[in-house]
Amino acid sequence: MNDPRVLSFRPTAEQYAWTFGGAAPVATISPGTVLELWTEDCFAGRVRGKDDLVSQVCEFPFLNPQTGPFYVEGAQPGDTLAVHFVSIEPAREWAASSTVPLFGALTATHLTATLQDPLPEVVWIWDLDRSAGLCRFTARDSAVVADLPMNPMHGTVGVAPANLEVRSALVPDAFGGNMDTPEMRAGVTCYLGVNVAGGLLSIGDGHARQGEGETCGVAVECAMNTVLVVDLLKGVRTPWPRLESDTHIMSTGSVRPLEDAFRIAQLDLVQWVSACCGLSPLDAYQFVSQAVEAPLANVVDTNYTSVAKLRKDWLPGAGRGAVMRGMHHHLREVARSYLA
Amino acid sequence: MNDPRVLSFRPTAEQYAWTFGGAAPVATISPGTVLELWTEDCFAGRVRGKDDLVSQVCEFPFLNPQTGPFYVEGAQPGDTLAVHFVSIEPAREWAASSTVPLFGALTATHLTATLQDPLPEVVWIWDLDRSAGLCRFTARDSAVVADLPMNPMHGTVGVAPANLEVRSALVPDAFGGNMDTPEMRAGVTCYLGVNVAGGLLSIGDGHARQGEGETCGVAVECAMNTVLVVDLLKGVRTPWPRLESDTHIMSTGSVRPLEDAFRIAQLDLVQWVSACCGLSPLDAYQFVSQAVEAPLANVVDTNYTSVAKLRKDWLPGAGRGAVMRGMHHHLREVARSYLA
Amino acid sequence: MNDPRVLSFRPTAEQYAWTFGGAAPVATISPGTVLELWTEDCFAGRVRGKDDLVSQVCEFPFLNPQTGPFYVEGAQPGDTLAVHFVSIEPAREWAASSTVPLFGALTATHLTATLQDPLPEVVWIWDLDRSAGLCRFTARDSAVVADLPMNPMHGTVGVAPANLEVRSALVPDAFGGNMDTPEMRAGVTCYLGVNVAGGLLSIGDGHARQGEGETCGVAVECAMNTVLVVDLLKGVRTPWPRLESDTHIMSTGSVRPLEDAFRIAQLDLVQWVSACCGLSPLDAYQFVSQAVEAPLANVVDTNYTSVAKLRKDWLPGAGRGAVMRGMHHHLREVARSYLA
Amino acid sequence: MNDPRVLSFRPTAEQYAWTFGGAAPVATISPGTVLELWTEDCFAGRVRGKDDLVSQVCEFPFLNPQTGPFYVEGAQPGDTLAVHFVSIEPAREWAASSTVPLFGALTATHLTATLQDPLPEVVWIWDLDRSAGLCRFTARDSAVVADLPMNPMHGTVGVAPANLEVRSALVPDAFGGNMDTPEMRAGVTCYLGVNVAGGLLSIGDGHARQGEGETCGVAVECAMNTVLVVDLLKGVRTPWPRLESDTHIMSTGSVRPLEDAFRIAQLDLVQWVSACCGLSPLDAYQFVSQAVEAPLANVVDTNYTSVAKLRKDWLPGAGRGAVMRGMHHHLREVARSYLA
Question: What pTM does this model have?
């Protein structure tokens, strides 16, 4: 294997994208390129201490800055981008979380609208011990502290949408975007259907860690140094984002209500398994029903995101080898070559 | 520790309960009693081969037979039953699954009503290799077979409901019932709030294994030999069913739409952690948001069930020890004593 | 036409039913009987002034008392009860409404659970001018008063449920119950499928008027003197409650989320029109889609209720005459005979 | 009153807009301008007979062409556009409707995803008798015909969205768009909050008539000759589209699930009534709860739309006069002046 091409890119303040679609590419890359990227946190770096309230220091709609978009040579509607995360490393020694008025799962919101007062707006600064791989929670109303393992991930990975649309970087949908799944971690390949020429890939919204569902609406948010490999599957359609790790294949769905997000992800996985393993749709329905894991991603964003997850070593028949033409295995090799 | 009292009970055909509430107790037990129970499968044992279609061999509403109810001495509204599963063992060498017309997540149903035709009704018989701990899927439309690990569980565990109600054994709600979570396995303690004198505990709906969400509506259904210990927490209110394993505490919520089930489970866990760990509600909201796992249970029953799950060794402060007065640890000891 | 049989019944405090199913009949009636009934308000008459807070004066679960149940001779599962409202007259010179903590559409609830504080609990007493047909709103926080037309109706009309269940009188479902639709007014016939021998009809929850959706969770609640005729359609199945007025046929659906309630009501109306008018299902789908009205009933109860409503004089072909064997017209005649 | 300025505009095939936002203005108008517009039907005029299947003759995403956008001089974020419909007249002697595969309320869709087959794709051509004001349904599978009154309306009215977004013309949201409410008829004023300079108003999607909910997903679709007056309310924020007729004020909400659309519309109406009539929020909550009508608009589009509707002559105190600074009355006068 030849040395992969490598592009390093750290956006200036003016170079961030705030939308999927509608932003000019920051660079053109060929399939197989390794990207070394800096991503700013979802607050555009403006929440730096517990007195930095989101409603005061942030400037709507300039939230969730994206690094990109990257134009992938040869990518056309009907193809699929493969985005393999080689490493995701917090770029600062701290991260921030917050309640945001009328946002989150355990509060009324602008969409689940009530007459009640919003919850108080509170910021938590988490200390990151990057060598130990820990992030430290410090309670605001008591002396309690608690360490949780880091589990770095990207909340937002996406391409330009279909249907001539431009969507806020806060939205998850069929184009990917703000799905907020902890499964989007190093070692994972994300497959995104291409809707416009070049695909126009962007990433952002790094989380030192996040619970499933992102209940309060905000994770342990931090800037990231992230390395990824971008490749192209010609002639492969991917209606909803898929993920693949060494151990699992995963489908996602993003919509409201949450049961519809569940349906989309599960149907996509049933169809994926059916195609890979030579099972009839009903046989795949039965098999997936007994084998699937269904961790939630977010239940707070404009659309809710559900994940359907299946162990690859449980796939019957030729299933394992047939997944996305072996792309994940290939990108693993590219990553090893890069890291060597 | 003294030897626990033990009651063995295998219902006759006439002794099953088909509801939570509204059925006379089959026995009265004192707190601490070990129950050795037989439970029939959700089909009342009538689906025994691939030609036994549910719509033909089953007799509505006589589905999901429950073993019980058991009247627990001293249990009063405002108390909590603790139900510890010592062992759950498939009672036959096979299990059955099926599509059921207008039931399941990837079909129109009587509640998500459409003009489309139902999916075909198909039965799958799974072979259980109990010594190897495997259940074997055999495709109906191809030669594919696949082994999955057994993970025996009870889909249905509940008490009599509040508000003078009697509910079908197919329903999950605040009284427990047909929650269909794979977390209900051996080694786990389930906490159920008592609504009527004696609590009136029943269990049923054994699954050799089940995916999260129970997508097609039916798990790998089998009769079970199950041992459990039943104990009583006086003066402890439990609004929605909680579970505790050696490693996790879990809250559940069962309602539609699915985001509301998520909200109930997450709010209950936030309040549980707040009370156990001396965190303010907002601090607990932040902590749980970053630490929680959110596996789905079912997205097919009358109500959908969501689980919120937290590692006990992540609980800060005195949290770990304070959970339900140490009941799970105590019941683990009772189980060891019984098994010895 | 012979004089109809008439039964007058005003329950004693002990005679109210608090559930659908599970209550012994207060009387047996033959089809065609006129019932002259007293119904108490949903607060069991305990909210009589603005200082009578529901949470203090009411005793859960003894809310929404029902007058009945009535055992209808000859009614068997597979039949339909026809309940025609001859007159619905407020029995007092005032009515009460209230916010109830964690209940209503514009607040978090026990099911749409949040960490926010409940809204304040406030009672409004409405003055009823029965001769003028007005109910007077008196603001609590200002000097504003406003008169609205009375539009008396019953929030709760139902029979014993299927599936061996007993349901709280606060629940709307396929058996009817607490549907809270303003369409349930004098001059209307309600059709309810029979699930158990005798049907076991109860009514309650009189409203001097109610907005569509019952947004705050509580209408202008009052005791009622109500006259109705009860008849029986042998061999007619009615899966979800239907209504018929002189001008409209209506289907209802009660479930969560609200779009599923909409789907149930619309599908039932499509099937009803298809059967009545000799249209294929797809033709009826098209016709109903362009002709239907879709007023909401309640978006606050355990299940949400949606109504699908079609003008009878728009029904093509023989449609008009074929509705429920002409039962509404017949009961109109009985009512005239009674009133004469 | 001076003669109003009048602009007539009929787009060429290349001039239609397919999105809200992202399209260059076709003209700049000053507040108070009368627009005489032609709008093409939602099929871009390609469904002209019963053999013109949408999936074959239409070219995605070129559906629902919009006439506009119009840049309104002086309109800035924080202002409100007032759009008064003077007349809406079908431009052809026929209109078309259709089932569309995996679209509609009584079918699985791409978002409510199932394994079932789609419903058949069927086109209905409706004959319009414009002098009699009738549209004629002709069944496809039988000889049945039926006349329904015309009730011409625009399904789609909107401005450029906030948050840097560009949305498909098929989407309803806070910017208006494809709300599909039959309330958008001649004589009505629609208020839309301005998100970008000039507002960028477009309209389209004429319906000769439509049922509430637009159940099959498609109304009686036709090209329209429409006259409207556009005016500007400086310094008035309108978070969600509002409507005003001679008799009613109306709020709308567009989101999924449907109960959230209901909440948005109801909360907006409560706040509107509170502000207009000097009622406290809780008093307005009570008043609206008893007085509101809640007709559904659509339960099929990307977002579902709910309407909350209140009679103006029921508004207490100074309410009636205070609505939107009397703009509707003023535009009625402009319309009279134009028509004279």
Answer: 0.98
